[in-house]
Structure to design on (480 residues):
DNA sequence: GTATTTTTTAAAGAAATTGTTTAAAATAAG
DNA sequence: CTTATTTTAAACAATTTCTTTAAAAAATAC
C-alpha cells in the first residue's frame, strides 16, 4: 500500500499549544492545519477529509464536545480530545460524543505523538482489514526488553519495576537506539510542556534508572551511556 | 493465506449505540455493517450472509421480533437481541422467534463481546479462528481459579463470594494477565455504557476485591498489582 | 413498601514519586 | 599534576497518586 502522510487538524485557542503540537507532529511527517475557534474548526473538518483531529475541549465559538457531535453527523474522522486537568479529567470521558481518545493537559509532546500514531494505526486498520498483524509494541535489546502494551520492563527475564517517569525516559531512549539526546531535549519531549525545571533532574532519573537495571544486570545498566558534554543515549549493541 | 473474519450486522436506531458496538467489535477483528431501520436490516440480512446479527428490539420500520421471524423463514443466521430494560426483557419470549441470546441495555461493552464470541463459537465449530483474546471458561492461576460457567471464584480451594461488579472486574483483569488497564479503560469496558462516574470507583472495587481474596490467601490478593500512574493489572506469576 | 445488599462518592491519611539541592567523584584540558 | 568542568550520588522537600474509611445513593430482595 502506498504511504500517504496523514493530515491532522489541530484545534486549540492557545497559540503556543497549537505551535507546539504542530512542531512535534510535523516532525513525524504529518501535515498540520490549525484552528483556534470551534465553529471554524467544524467548518474546516467538514470541508476537508482529515485523518485525525486534535480538539481542545474548551474553545471560543463552539466547545469541543459540540464540534465533535456535529462532525459525527456526517463524518467519522477520529478525534482526540484535549482536556485541562480540572475539566472533569478524573471522570470517564464520554464516547457519547464520539471521541476516540483524550489527553489531559499539560501533556508531554511525546505522549501526544504516541497516541496520534496509535489512533491512526487503529483507524487505518479498520479500513483495511488485511493488515491483521497484531502490532506488538515490544522493543528488544540483548539484556533488556520493553513491552509497552503491558508497560513492563524485563532485564534478563527479571521484571524491573520502574516509576512512571523512569519508564517514560527509558522507553523514549529505547525508541531511538544510539541516538544521543541532550538533557534539554529530554526535558522537552518526555516531561510535560509546563515543566521548566533543572537539567539535573534528568541526571537523577538516569541515575535511578541505572541503579534499578544494575541490580539485575550490569550490562543492562551500561546500555544507558553518558556522552560527555552532550547528553545520554541508549546503546543497542552493548557488546561488553 | 488470509484468515476469514466473521461479519456482523448491527441494528439499532441510536447511532451512538451502533458506533459503540462497532468500535468494540472491530477491535476484535470483526467486520461490521450497520442498519438503523428494521426493514432495511432485514433486506441486508437476506442479501448478505452475516455470521451474526445484533438486533435491537425496538426499531423504526419493523421491530426486532418481526425482523427475526421473517429472517428465519429462509436463514438461520445467529441473532442476539438487544432489549431496553423495561422493554419486556423479563419475557423470555425472544427465544420463541428464533433469538439465540439476548442482552439487556444498558450493557457493558465487555459483555457484548463475550456473548458474541460465545455465540459465534457455538454456531460454527471450526469456521473461525479465535480472535485476539481467547475466551476461556476456566482461568487458573497459582492461587486463584475462576470458573466462568459456574460463576465461581476459588482461592486455594476455598470459594470466595464476590458481588457482581467485583466478579466482573476480576474476570476482566484475569482474562488479560499482566496487561495493565487504566481506570478509565476499566470503567469503559467493565461498566455499562451509561456510567460516567468517578475513576476512584475502580479503586474501591479493587480494594474490596483484595480484601476478600486476602481473607483466604495473601498471595492471591497480591496478584492484583497497582501500576503507579497507570492503573491495575493481574500478575500471573506472583512469585513474590 | 421496607430492609438489605451493593455500588458510588467524598475526604482524609498513607505511600510513592518527583524535583531540588548539595557534595563527591570522574573526566577533560592545560 | 593541577585545575576547571561535568557528571554522579545522596538526602531532603514537595508533589502526586493511591488506599482506606465512612457515608450517601442506588439497586435488589423480602
Amino acid at each position: 500500500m502506498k504511504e500517504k502522510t496523514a493530515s491532522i487538524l489541530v484545534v486549540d485557542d492557545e497559540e503556543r499549544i497549537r505551535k507546539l503540537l504542530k512542531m512535534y507532529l510535523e516532525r513525524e511527517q504529518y501535515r498540520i492545519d490549525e484552528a483556534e475557534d470551534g465553529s471554524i474548526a467544524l467548518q474546516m473538518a467538514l470541508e476537508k477529509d482529515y485523518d485525525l483531529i486534535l480538539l481542545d475541549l474548551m474553545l471560543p465559538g463552539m466547545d469541543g464536545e459540540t464540534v465533535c457531535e456535529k462532525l459525527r453527523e456526517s463524518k467519522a474522522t477520529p478525534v482526540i480530545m484535549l482536556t485541562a486537568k480540572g475539566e472533569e479529567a478524573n471522570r470517564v470521558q464520554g464516547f457519547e460524543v464520539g471521541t476516540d481518545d483524550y489527553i489531559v493537559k499539560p501533556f508531554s509532546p511525546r505522549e501526544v505523538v504516541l497516541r496520534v500514531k496509535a489512533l491512526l494505526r487503529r483507524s487505518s486498520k479498520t479500513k483495511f482489514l488485511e493488515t491483521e498483524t497484531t502490532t506488538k509494541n515490544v522493543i528488544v535489546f540483548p539484556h533488556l526488553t520493553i513491552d509497552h502494551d503491558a508497560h513492563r520492563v524485563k532485564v534478563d527475564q527479571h521484571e524491573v519495576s520502574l516509576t512512571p517517569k523512569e519508564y517514560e525516559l527509558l522507553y523514549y531512549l529505547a525508541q531511538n537506539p544510539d541516538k544521543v539526546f541532550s538533557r534539554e531535549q529530554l526535558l522537552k519531549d518526555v516531561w510535560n510542556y509546563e515543566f521548566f525545571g533543572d537539567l539535573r533532574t534528568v541526571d537523577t532519573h538516569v541515575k535511578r534508572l541505572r541503579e534499578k537495571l544494575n541490580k539485575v544486570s550490569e550490562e543492562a545498566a551500561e546500555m544507558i551511556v553518558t556522552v560527555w558534554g552532550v547528553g545520554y543515549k541508549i546503546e543497542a549493541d552493548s557488546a561488553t
Q: What stands out?
A: The helical segments of chain B are 15-27, 38-47, 64-72, 109-123, 164-175, 183-190, 200-216, 218-221. The two ends of chain B are 43 Å apart (CA to CA).
